[in-house]
Amino acid sequence: MSNETAGHLTPGPHQVDVDGLTQRYHVHGSGPVCVAVPGGPGVDWASLRTPELEEFLTMVYVEPLGTGDSQRLPSHPHGYTRERYTRSLTGLLDRLALPRVFLLGHSHGGFVAQHFALHHPDRLHGLVLYESAPVTGPEHMAEAAARVDAFARRNEGRPELPSALAALQAVGASTDDASVTTALRGLLPVYFARYWDREDEFRAFRSAVTCTYVSTQHETGEPDVIDDRDALPGLTVPTLVLVGRHDVICGPRWAEELHTLIPGSRLAVLEDSGHLGHVEEPEAFARAVRGFVESTRTEAEPRTGDAVPEELRGLSGPVLMPGTDEYAAECATFNLNLSFRPALVVGAACEDDVRAAVRFAAGRGMPIAVKSSGHQFVSPAEDAVLITTERMKRLTVNGDRRTVSAEAGLRWSEVLPRAADAGLTPVAGSAPEVGVVGYTLGGGQSPLLGRTHGYAADHVRRMNVVTADGELRTVTPDNEPDLFWALLGGKGNFGVVTEIEFDVFPVTRFYGGGIYFAGEDLAAVLDAWRLWVPTVPEEMTTSLGVQRLPDLPALPPPLRGAFVVHVRIGYLGSADDGERLVAPLRAAAPVLLDAVGEKPVTAVGEIHMDPVDPMPYFDRSLSLREFPEKAARALVELVGPGSGCRLANFEIRALGGALDREPRVANAVSMRGVPFVVFGFAVGGLDRADDLRRDLAKVVDGLTPWAADRGMVNFLSPDEAADTEGVRAVYGPERYDRLAEVKRRHDPANLFRHNHNVRPA
Questions:
Q1: Does the pLDDT of residue 6 top 60, yes or no?
Q2: Region 24-42: what's the mean pLDDT?
Q3: Of residues 182, 200, 181, 202, the one with CA closest to residue 191
Q4: Across residues 265-282, what is the average pLDDT?
């Protein structure tokens, strides 16, 4: 985005001039933009602040004109009509260069929001009417009076009740900021379902609420009466109506009427809330809003049928719009259950294409998602510009310097043979079809060189990066040390890495592959493997998988449709030494198939034999601080014979060695000192999602007594680290805080947020 636009959406307070008046607003959180209008009129914006929404939305809390530090009209306290507030909102969106947003209005803010939606539906992705009503005036007041009477009957005998009811009467007689604030604080228990039962929870909120005296009258003194019942059936914006069961001001009667009037709207009732459900039931409140946001197909610019935007014409690579076969193919991922659904796709063929795409997205306040091979997916990125890099294939192998420079579209299967021609090999992963750059930015744990040389990220020398300002930077430990540190381990949070240069090693062969045992022998093999792992040198890397294999002709006969234990071996020493080291494992149980032997480094994929074709699946992971006998017994019960487990694969990888040591140049990789990581996946389509997710949760949760306090970024699924606390746990507090500070400096508007997101500090 432009520097001006980016600055308007950085966390914290801001102001813009609208129609010659200063409008204040406050930005918190990350995700699609949601503008929130508080109640009142005149109630402080902070009363509506909801951290739970900020986990998945960029909340722009409006401080309406006449309220708080926003400018007042010459006719103050009168003249703050819905038309005035709608003009103010329109001007705010124009100044922020936001074509469309979600809009949430609470109480009087709901009246404003529905007026805006009726007059400017093209500016909204979706509308949340929270404790709102289609009408004000005598009918509304009579309903409120009846509900206040019901509240009084429910709380009869409470000594605090008379003062709360008196404060309710005093609000109408207040004509200055101090008296209306005092009255609002006094009546606040009436706005809760069970204030006095939970007073310790809500006391701080009550004492912090402030209010500016703002009337609901025109400049002339005439009341601003609302009746939208004739207009609401024509509302075309996707709408969520949200109400507390015990709200006395805009209760369920009005929510149900709104729901009936607005075509296709949703109704959500917070059963244990009054007028302030975001305070009383914040998780349920956020869950309702999140479900609405995620299920509402955002219509971010541009959509199907729109022309390619002017700024993106003439790129080297294609610009693909929704609704075409080319768009669908570009958005496909390795997991057939998941695909991207962005506003548009830029199929970048060069760094200039990436710069143009970033600048286009930034100029419109649109987030940016990046895809190379599509093996790791976090979000469908419906509101985003998706940059695909698979056309960027420049590869340089320098045998004298023992380095490789690889552009962002390359996969390990393309790099390995070229490096091998020079007698060299990189710290590549278990699946050769994975993208080089994404794997490395997430750390990169190799089944062959990992325990000897550490993570792939430890050997990076240089990266070319397009940051959120659209600039192409060459990042090294010397010229951008903090950004260099954060990129390696921070995986995609800080820009688009277009090229990466890294060290490779004079390795041409290895001893390794897989040994398969019958699944019924899991306990014996697992015990032998667990006791064997601490005895082997760093040149040996190993893992163990429990697999329920499909009945496919591509598999050798002993493995077709079989339940097996797959022990993986990657050893850099001699074949003779490897034979000696592996002998205890071969003796653990009868061997079904032994595929361990001397191999060229280009056969590294034969260690794990990971799938190479896309499939529908669900996955989970967990790091372990130890793997004692009790954990092994638990794993046998969870995935072994008789367990009923339906997972296609559940594996445990032994780490340690150089993976525990800090590299010469530090980076943000989070796993040093963690000895094991487990990963599982279940194969099946979306129709089996609930069952397969339960199967995964049962196994992963069963190992949590031995869980480590950090996670492996490359193994995270869309269901994991889905909020700030989850991501913070993956990295650990100190590392996360440093990443968040780098994010603040290089991506303050959090454009790169369709990932396991580090939010700006």
A1: no
A2: 89
A3: 202
A4: 93
